[in-house]
Amino acid sequence: xxxxxxxxxxxxxxxxxxxxxxxxxxxxxxxxxxxxxxxxxxxxxxxxxxxxxxxxxxxxxxxxxxxxxxxxxxxxxxxxxxxxxxxxxxxxxxxxxxxxxxxxxxxxxxxxxxxxxxxxxxxxxxxxxxxxxxxxxxxxxxxxxxxxxxxxxxxxxxxxxxxxxxxxxxxxxxxxxxxxxxxxxxxxxxxxxxxxxxxxxxxxxxxxxxxxxxxxxxxxxxxxxxxxxxxxxxxxxxxxxxxxxxxxxxxxxxxxxxxxxxxxxxxxxxxxxxxxxxxxxxxxxxxxxxxxxxxxxxxxxxxxxxxxxxxxxxxxxxxxxxxxxxxxxxxxxxxxxxxxxxxxxxxxxxxxxxxxxxxxxxxxxxxxxxxxxxxxxxxxxxxxxxxxxxxxxxxxxxxxxxxxxxxxxxxxxxxxxxxxxxxxxxxxxxxxxxxxxxxxxxxxxxxxxxxxxxxxxxxxxxxxxxxxxxxxxxxxxxxxxxxxxxxxxxxxxxxxxxxxxxxxxxxxxxxxxxxxxxxxxxxxxxxxxxxxxxxxxxxxxxxxxxxxxxxxxxxxxxxxxxxxxxxxxxxxxxxxxxxxxxxxxxxxxxxxxxxxxxxxxxxxxxxxxxxxxxxxxxxxxxxxxxxxxxxxxxxxxxxxx
Length: 641
Ligand code: C2E
Ligand code: CA
Ligand code: CA
Prior knowledge:
Layout: H1 2-5, H2 16-52, H3 56-76, H4 80-100, H5 109-118, H6 124-146, E1 150-151, E2 154-155, H7 165-191, H8 200-215, H9 225-241, E3 246-253, H10 256-263, H11 265-282, E4 288-293, E5 296-301, H12 307-322, E6 325-327, E7 330-332, E8 336-343, H13 350-366, E9 372-374, H14 377-398, E10 402-411, E11 416-428, E12 432-434, H15 440-446, H16 448-469, E13 476-481, H17 483-486, H18 490-501, E14 509-514, H19 515-520, H20 522-534, E15 538-544, H21 551-556, E16 561-564, H22 566-570, H23 581-592, E17 596-599, H24 605-614, E18 618-619, H25 630-640
Parallel strand pairs: 8-9, 11-13, 13-14, 14-15, 15-16, 16-17, 17-18
Antiparallel strand pairs: 1-2, 3-5, 3-8, 4-5, 6-7, 10-11, 10-18, 11-12
The structure holds ligand C2E and calcium ion (CA) (2 copies).
Ligand C2E binds near residues 407, 424 and 479.
């Protein structure tokens, strides 16, 4: 577009959003030029008629120029081509006027004025096109004059005092200098936004648009993160002055990713716009809504007299979200998790308030989503504790504070221990025993799980080797592997190396992968699982039944066993209506695929018996033993055999 040629002066490119304004401006300028050309046509006709008692020269030449530009306007309006043609047309009019006055030097002023008028375009190109046209016609007409050519019975004249190339060069130099000066002025105009548009009104409109786009989210039109921050500053000042409170609500749509993944981003975007509009209806005029991330919204509720009022609004929001959302014939179920922090109760610092609301939102998510949670200093305490744990993990590994406990896996028919699951424990030198739920997710978030995972795999292999030395060659040991480890290339080589170094039968080594892990990164995981499987290692799908559990995708995985999630086992109660269709189906599914089916969390004899009856032949659980330290496990095995 226009802007490329303008690189001569490195004119700033017109921002995308202003491009429309610019196009409009170009078209308007084109029209102004057509009017000016028409006026000149009249003037040229008039001059010819009074000077030569005929109007033909001015009328015909002026008409040729003007009419062709009107035709060009139809096809090229608003474009660089049009502007260039207009520039040529203007210069040809200079020629007409000069010729009409038989080369009178004063008529050359027309050239300079016409070039100045062309700056109306706010584009450098037409100015330079005009300069080049002028130089070309001066050279050509200088020749015509030299050879005494006539046109319309008039001698062709470009200079009334005789011709010569020295004068042509002089004129060319003036024209070139003017082109550069005008070009520079245009560059400044664009750079400083002066007269970007024809009228002041349009300029301010553009400026408003500029500030609008930098302060608003393009998709929903809500405030963006940047403007939220500055507006929060104002709110703090207001709240201080009038001794008022305000609340920061952090909203995150539950499972929004699923919408994007299954229905596409188009639908996802429409949904976000709908959510934005819904939120606008739910809050008051002087409250603020911002979209600060993909599916993250922040609402600031002003002047909250008491928490009860606040809860009412929140409950209303939660309720509204639960209604069915219809988009393009898709019926969507949606919910939202909300975290709340309050100024000045929770903090007087804006960033901290936002952080606290975020923390509270995560708590709402962790507690099952579709709910709200207020920030409490307790929560803050928990966060601090987690940070402390994250910082302590490396030291703990170096200080050998981690140990693996082993929970026996039992063959129901024989009552024999056929294997064990390795479960990690952290024996902290000050805090005592820390269960895995308190640190595994932190290790996963910080990436420490990669290092810890390598250690776990190695310890598991060593355990198998020790069992072998004790004479037990038929007890397998499994260890748990988390998602993060699957995203790393080392998992396969870690396992391979551990098997080699400890010289153990790969068939005795097993890994447990949760169903959700397998689903999440299906292609990456599948490839890694296949490689690991090729080592001869046993693959067990953990927590089975909690995810998608479909037969079709089960088939894709080279798994050897299924572990039925504890929640299904919990459902088996004594004397209850024990028709557990889902559980039965899962067991049947495992049998169809020729997999070992094992149940976890078995605490009662009747649970074990029910499972056996339905075709699940293995179990682990407190009924037989809790996870125990290695030495105790050895004793269990010894007594069992
Ligand atoms: P999981 O893999 O599902 O492990 C089974 C959990 O259920 C273990 O909890 C175990 O102690 C517990 N459990 C076993 N039998 C019974 C029972 O009869 N009743 C009850 N109420 N609970 C039973 P634990 O050891 O606290 O581990 C919790 C989770 O932490 C594990 O769930 C696993 O996801 C994770 N985890 C544990 N160790 C490791 C590890 O070495 N690496 C990784 N990545 N994750 C681990
Ligand atoms: Ca497990
Ligand atoms: Ca489990």
